[in-house]
Amino acid sequence: MVAGAINCEKDLSQHPEWQDQYQPKHDVQHNIYNDLMKYPTLDEWIDNVRSLIIKLPVLLRNVEKFE
């Protein structure tokens, strides 16, 4: 992301080197993003919080190394 950039539709005919990058990928399943915006369940939240609590001391030690 570039500061001050404007996100708008681009005419790729002016940039043929990028056209292939924006074509649908045949080796990617079209449904992999279906649940991307789905809210986590309560159990998933609890599992993630527990995981973070377990990892917190290690994460904090790593942060202290860079201060």
Oligomer: single chain
Low-confidence stretches: none
- N-C termini distance: 26 Å
The radius of gyration over CA amounts to 21 Å
Secondary structure elements and their pairing?
Layout: H1 16-19, H2 42-65
Summed up, what is this model?
The protein is mainly α and 67 residues long. It has helices at 16-19, 42-65.
What does this structure look like?
This protein is 42% helix and 0% strand. It has helices at residues 16-19, 42-65. The protein starts with 15 loop residues before the first helix and ends with a helix. The radius of gyration is 21 Å and the shape is extended. It has a domain at 36-67. It contains 2 helices and no strands. The chain is an all-alpha fold. The mean pLDDT is 84. The longest helix is centred in the last third of the chain and has 24 residues, at 42-65.
